[in-house]
Give the backbone structure.
Amino acid sequence: MDELNYKKLVSITNELRFAEICEILEDNEIPYLYDDEEIYLRLLTGFSNYEKSIYVREEDFDKAIELLVYFTEDYDSENLFFDEQDE
């Protein structure tokens, strides 16, 4: 069985922007995973200021970055954190 390698695409604290990015990825048929640092707080209170990280497959990473470039040009990119990528 082939092992899938995922790469961190972005970290975000804004729930609305998180949902929009996930929708962009889904619309472009890019599978993703996310890591919610404070899911218990979100379940108890309905919100959390902790960041979520979105991961995509390595083979989809360049396409996902390109989509996010257009997203950040069109919308406020506050609370959107890109990791430094190793070249």
Observations:
- Residues 33 and 51 are 14 Å apart (CA to CA).
- The chain has three helices and four strands.
- Helices lie at 15-27, 39-45, 61-74.
